[in-house]
Predict the 3D structure of the following.
Amino acid sequence: MPGMAEWIHEGTNDEREEFKVVGTWNHPGRQSWDMTSGAAKYPTDLYREGELYAMCLRSPYGHAKIKSLDISEAEKLEGVRLILTWEDEEIASMPKFVPSYFTFGQSPLLGNEAEFEGDEVGCVVVAETEEICRKALDYVRVEWEVLPFILDCREAGKPGAPILRPEMNPDSNMTGNTFGAAIKWENGNVEEGFKEADYIETIEYGRPMWSQFRSMPGSYYSYWDNDPWGNPDGEKLCYVTNHAHFPSNGPLVSAWQGMGLHEDKIRALTPYMASRYCDFVEKRGAQLAPVLSKRLGGVPVRMNTTRRQAFDAAVPETYFTIRIGFKEDGTLCAVHCKNVHQSGARGGYGDKTHGHLVLPPNAQGFKSTSCPNIYSEMEYYVTNGACTTADPGKDVWEPVNLAFAKIADTLGMDITEVIMKNVIITQPSLEACMEEGKKAFRWDEKWHLAGQRVLPDGRLHGVAARACWSMTWGMISYNINLRLNTDGKVYMPYSEALIGTYWPDAVQLVVAEEMGMKPEDVIVYYSANYPNWQKGDAADRGSTCTWAAKEAAILLKKRVLDAVYMYVGAATPEEADIVDSMLTLKADPTVQVPLVYLGQFAEGFCGKPNVPFQNDVVRTMNVDFCEVAVDPETGLVEILDYTAAHDFGKVIRPASAMGQLEMALTMASGRALREEIIWDENTGVLLNGNMYDYKVPTALDQPPMDNVAVETRCGGGAYGSTGVAHAHTNAGLVGCAIQNAIGGDFIIMQPYTPDRVLAALGKISKED
Amino acid sequence: MAQLPRREFLKAGTAALAGMTLSALGLGSITGAAEGSSPEKQVFVYTCPVCGEQFPDFEQLRLHFSGMHRELEIPKTVCLTINSVEYDVFVEDHWTLREALIRAVGLTGNAKQMCDRGGCGSCTVLIDGKPALSCTTLAVECEGKQIETSEGIAADPTYRPLLEAYVRNDTAQCGYCTPAQFTVAKYILNKYDLNPTEDQIRLELSGNICRCGTYARHVKAIMEAAEEMRGGK
């Protein structure tokens, strides 16, 4: 079928059936001890004698331009060491984009136009204390030209709306999406499809901006000092905190490219960077701190953001209007999907200082259904509501699942049946996930028609299910080098900033498995600047890095056996083996020789699985289930059970694999019930940029979970594995469960707060 | 009287302190002292920031100042008892305990800045056995109180089962909030006599925000540690 999503099942790496190490528990991560004890040093923890502090001027307006800037009084303050303005030659010459993900939004490192409230603009102050920085910024005299602002992307698209980025698009606020997906596309003939439909329904769905809320607000630290291992050209080395997992060593790349340096002159200060959830936003501090330090002779410069300032990275708002046509048996026959989406303050993506990536929640997911007639129309508008980042949910599937819920509700069908009737390209993965998930969730006991069950305590009971791709991005070539040392240990260096996926520890298990080593004899260790991959990284570490590790381990084992087989009396390398870190004779496993002092052997592999990088390639699926109780008096929703059945292909390291599911579902629960960034519509000022008013789930809010690991070996990584990545933070599932509880209309706007639930129940008007 | 830049004074103590503490414990990067051990007065090498002369104690530095650098004001010190070790440290009156932990003592486990206004729990220490937010506690208020940090708890053999349960269960993902949760975990074990329920653990941890959603892992780790510490394993 033209335009269909492609289902590639290569049986990747599925030749190994026996696993001794892979898939087993109780392997503490290399960093776990220090992350628990507190010995791990994050950028905010770094402290050096004589350090200075840097802060940027920030806009008090939703959109404004600097007409004049006077720093003379600020410069006179005692303790102020340097003030640079946007007109500074070096600042102005910094590149306007990073070497990947760019087409739009080439904002300068420090410009004279603020594109949202809190935007860094105009000048940066370096002083001896943070207090002096703040005071100096108070002394900076700024004449602002306040410009019109737009917070809602639907407003940005209206005729007559002010043009926010004329240098980007002089005609409208339209911008592009990240991966260049077509703005309009059609499969089949939608109008003909609607003629064949037994039912035609319309779905409205909207989502406000919300924050991925990384745990450590952006913190950058840099100084210049001698390279203890040599300064051949007499230049100092730039030490800098690593603060992005994507693109690879983001600020490092930006720093050395921006300053005309080569990579050997930049060294990461720490592998720890706290959490990032596809938040590609690099704050200006990442690039400014090294520049400011250099201007001051290499003295350490710290550039921290506050929690409120950290809300400048957000997941974009999006609005859908979808017409669906379907048959009496529940199969889709026509989809007309219109999506208005926000591209953030700097346009599409690629601004190096606030890089953003927009994964559009478009109609792509419908291509995985049997529906022959699909029309998709997307509009992406720049606004003044912060910068936007990728959505850590697989949002292309949210409209599809809402369509399934609508069909199920209209026809009185079980939604799991609707999913299985319509989704066609992902067997055996979908069927396996559905079966395992329904069993774990006890779906058959819990499901009922909408509005049909009341709990003993008077609350309304509801359930829902949804399916989604488990993306195997596979776009990264990992570079894994292994060395068997004379101490009998296999060593693997890595340099990647750590965000909690435990990929080096998963790699350790794969290498142990392939080499025949005990896990404790495979040592993964942090080595600053060691390039594990070419450029970029993604949440599919679990697939591409394990693939490269497996290939490298196979090569190393062969090299070792070719060289030392004779020590166990073997006539050929094929007669020898490595078992539990011992060289052995296959014919007589009691013949064993330790691998110590047999020499040093090294091998490497740089590459990736044969997986094209595009949204349409699907290998594995996942199905989530949600059970809620809705209080009809207060509108309060409690999630009683949340179950993800995720096809990992093959679980490499269970502790971290299941941990990723827990993270995603917990985040989804917060996003569904309480998380929303709110600006004042009259001033463009952020209203809830703190942890009291923006409510992240606590230990008491976390829903009970019964997650299931499904293993079909269909993924793209080692042994057919794949990661969790973007799959599960879909808040729409909770909304479908609420509708199943209360009956009637679906709530069209997230989060599903009590007022919206009460409005859906008819207890208050929708305008209230 | 001219005031000596405070940061020059800080230079005097911290480097020597860190080295001594680590080597004394033999625990690599974990700093602290075993519970039950008698408090030990930590000895700094006090270096005069003006002329560079070194002294074994603060009093001798003070005498040196009154003789050689009369024009300068000598900042006062505060004695903080952290993980059963007494630290004489220079702190500004307005410094929070969190700032003092980073700048003067070099213990950063419980000095994490997620919100800086008492809303996240990432800076939680134990003061006299109870959880307290180091970002909203002044360092000068802590004199005479027992301060416990994650580094000390991790180095305490009594709580080795807790540390092992934490790393075994991947309680850390990004790890930023983990030391504070680990610190509260010790409090939970003590408060509930090594027999906390899941509800009690979740309630006690509800002031510690984890964006990675690791809460269930903490519950599991604490319950496993409690069982082992009760002698069940």
